[in-house]
Amino acid sequence: MTVRRPPPRAERATATPPSPTPPPHDAAELAGAALLGAALTSPAALGRLRALGVQAEEFGGAQQRVWRTIEELGGGVVDVVTVAAALGTDPLAALGGPAYLTALATQASTVDTLDAHRAALGQAVHQRRVSQALQTLTRRHAQAPHDFGAALHELTALAGQPIGRPTTGLALGALARTVITQIHHPEPTATLIPTGLPALDAALTVLPCHLVVLAGRPAMGKSLTGLWIALQAAKAGIPGLVISLEMAASELAMRALACEARCDVTGVMRAAHGAPHDLGERGLQRLDAAATRLDALPLHIVDQLQTPEQLEQAIAHAASTGVRLVVVDHLHCIVADDGRSNETVVLGRITAQLKAAARRHGVAIWLLAQLSRAAEYRADHRPVLSDLRQSGEIEAFADTVVMAYRDEYYHPYTPDAGILELIIAKQRHGTVTTVRAGWDGSCQRLVPL
Questions:
Q1: Long-range contacts of 148-151, Cβ-Cβ distance < 8 Å, separation of 24 or more
Q2: DSSP alpha helix (H) spans, 167-279
Q3: DSSP for 22-33, written as a single string
Q4: Is the dihedral of CA 48, 49, 50, 52 positive or negative?
Q5: Are 404 and 422 in contact (CB under 8 A)?
Q6: What integer pLDDT is reported at residue 188 of this predicted model?
Q7: 444 — alpha (psi -120 to 50), left (phi > 0) or beta?
Q8: Per-residue pLDDT averaged across 68-81, rounded?
Q9: What is the pLDDT of residues 350-407, one digit of tens each?
Q10: What CATH number is given for 1-190 in this structure?
């Protein structure tokens, strides 16, 4: 399973090509290229950048010249052709020719990740300015050990400057106009995160900045549902990452194979470990074909993480490669006890950190969590929000809370055997409701109803 990347920039085929423009080599150039590429390819992205108050001074060198040209075009059409024409022959050649603008377009950020890339640009620019001030301070101290107050003052001022967004905030009118532009010019890649269940997709609004908590008692199907969603999103072209703190990556791979091949997961696990199984020749052939299909999906699994800091690093790296969906299985396995705080505070802090990571990196995070035993003692075992352990903290930071319930676990002869209920108990951008799906635990599949 690999994460797809844009194809390399084609070389210019001219008789006397200009000096090639080197690719971005630091964080500021990478973030700047992503923002300029978005401005060149998406009216909605350009509107968002203007709403964010992006200034030419935030870019360096050739990138700054491109942004100034975009600003000069005002409300006119902005794309590779119009910017090339506005630059003129000689200035364009100095940048590297049309191939330079084309290369920027291939590195475009999506509308969903613009805020994260703008923050990265601000951070990189801030660090660069502080570094320059430090160099000046060092140089002045070497030249005149008793006369470097001005440089020290500049460094102190820079260290206290906020980074990223302007301190005046964002103009509501500009933000509203950006939304209207997105409505009239929707991004083909800026889709909601799908689940593979049409009824659930219709009920949920999950964006690549949301934190969704999927909670349930043991054996209700949290892990199956989380992996199912990651697989279906990957099939829809949305790169994903599954962070498993409870099961090994090899176990999840067996589950994914069983799901894709529609084979009994127990048989797959037994066959993988050399034990007798009843898959048969046709079952093994289906597994081979399923492995080929899974190999083409942009989905990764990691099972060696434990702390919130490790999760943050993994999410940041995954987002930099294009990942837009992260499934974390599960919250109560994350190690973050400082020895002083109670479990409620610790789990609330972890949830808050994951919510911040979702916004910062422009990814949707499905966070699996355990429910308390309270439901076991009620006549109706269906979970409610108060069953979510430390629910006050977790619930506050989640954009959406979905609870998994299978009635046949408690009542084997129920008419709802083979049914998974996904109870949407909280939704910041929608209503609360219950969605039913078919449950095939032996093959690790959900079936739309």
A1: none
A2: 172-184, 198-203, 222-235, 249-261, 265-272
A3: PPP-SHHHHHHH
A4: positive
A5: yes
A6: 58
A7: left
A8: 83
A9: 888 899 899 888 899 999 999 888 888 889 999 998 888 655 578 888 999 999 999 9
A10: 1.10.860.10
Residue 79 DSSP one-character state: S
Query: For residue 371, what is the DSSP state?
Result: B
Q: Rounded CA gap, 234 and 325, in Å?
A: 9
CB 343 within 8 A of CB 392: no
Inter-residue contact 423 to 400 (CB < 8 Å): no
CB 101 within 8 A of CB 89: no
pLDDT the model gives residue 243: 95
What is the rounded distance in angstroms from the CA atom of residue 315 to the CA atom of residue 326? 7
The beta-carbon contacts of 47-50 under 8 Å, at least 24 apart in sequence, are 47/174, 47/177, 47/178, 47/181, 47/182, 48/111, 48/114, 48/178, 49/114, 49/118, 50/174, 50/178
Q: Supply the pTM of this predicted model.
A: 0.67
Cα 287-292-297 angle, rounded to 5 deg? 120
Residue 89, exposed/middle/buried by CB under 10 A (0-12, 13-18, 19+)? exposed
Provide the CA 227 distance to its chain's centre, in angstroms. 16
Mean local confidence (pLDDT), 89-116: 81
| 198-448 CATH fold | Rossmann fold (3.40.50)
Find the helix or strand (DSSP H, E) in which 433 lies.
Answer: strand 433-440
Give tens-digit pLDDT for 320-332: 888 999 999 989 8
Read off the pLDDT of each residue in 74-96 and give the average, rounded to a whole number.
84
The helix (H) or strand (E) run that includes residue 401 is: strand 400-405
- Give the phi and the psi of residue 433 in degrees, each rounded to 5: -165, 180
- pLDDT tens, residue by residue, 147-178: 545 555 555 554 554 444 444 556 676 667 76
**Every domain of the chain and the residues it spans:** 1-190, 198-448
* Contact (Cβ atoms closer than 8 angstroms) between residue 64 and residue 95: no
